[in-house]
């Protein structure tokens, strides 16, 4: 049964426009790998960093040189790069059926405890673009270091239309 009183849900591309979000250029590999690989209806994206045009936007560890807010902004930047990679690979973000997995790796000082607050920077971007019905659970880990000295690396798996 269709609820005619309920407004249709906007697609991801329309939500980006409504939010006034311009995606950065799609990321390119820093080594011998591809940005995305598909098997069946799943697309696995290589680690997404807070890098725009091959330039890291944040350097350092959260809880040390970087604040929680800096970490959140780095996570947002990495999420936008992931969306850009997904759009480049799929042609349209409207092909995303759901986010299957979000992994957030955070370079932190040893006693750092606010990992969820930092990871919310990425999760909230995905929530705004795809809506709550397409989100997954997530894994958040603190690590000693990440490529290029950045504070965040995202792991993303999407289910897409066949």
Report on this structure.
With 162 residues, the protein is of the alpha+beta class. It has a single domain (42-160), classed as 60s Ribosomal Protein L30, Chain: A. The chain has helices at residues 12-19, 68-90, 115-130, and strands at residues 36-39, 42-48, 51-52, 55-56, 96-107, 138-143, 152-160. The protein has three helices and seven strands, in the order H-E-E-E-E-H-E-H-E-E. Helix 2 packs parallel to helix 3 (115-130). A five-stranded mixed sheet has the order 1-2-7-5-6. The chain has a two-stranded antiparallel sheet with strand order 3-4.
Helix content: 25-40%
* Uncertain runs: 1-8
Mean pLDDT score:
94
Structural class: alpha+beta
Give me the CATH architecture, please.
Answer: 2-Layer Sandwich
What count of structural domains?
Answer: 1
Number of helices: 3
**What is the total tally of β strands?**
7
What is the end-to-end distance? 25 Å
Helix/strand order, N-terminal first: HEEEEHEHEE
Strands of the biggest beta sheet: in what spatial order? 1-2-7-5-6
CATH class identity: Alpha Beta
Write the layout of secondary structure elements.
Blueprint: H1 12-19, E1 36-39, E2 42-48, E3 51-52, E4 55-56, H2 68-90, E5 96-107, H3 115-130, E6 138-143, E7 152-160
Helix pairs in contact: 2-3
């Amino acid at each position: 049964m269709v609820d005619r009183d309920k407004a249709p849900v906007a697609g991801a591309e329309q939500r980006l426009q409504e939010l006034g979000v311009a995606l950065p250029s799609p990321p390119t590999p820093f080594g011998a790998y591809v940005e995305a690989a598909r098997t069946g209806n799943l697309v696995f994206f290589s680690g997404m960093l807070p890098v725009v045009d091959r330039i890291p936007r944040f350097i350092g560890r959260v809880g040390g040189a970087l604040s929680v807010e800096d970490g959140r902004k780095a996570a947002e930047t990495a999420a936008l790069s992931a969306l850009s990679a997904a759009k480049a690979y799929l042609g349209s973000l409207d092909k995303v059926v759901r986010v299957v997995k979000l992994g957030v790796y955070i370079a932190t000082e040893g006693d750092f405890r606010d990992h969820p607050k930092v990871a919310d920077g990425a999760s909230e971007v995905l929530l705004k673009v795809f809506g709550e019905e397409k989100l997954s659970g997530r894994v958040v880990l603190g690590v000693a270091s990440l490529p290029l000295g950045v504070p965040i690396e995202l792991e993303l798996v999407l289910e897409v239309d066949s």
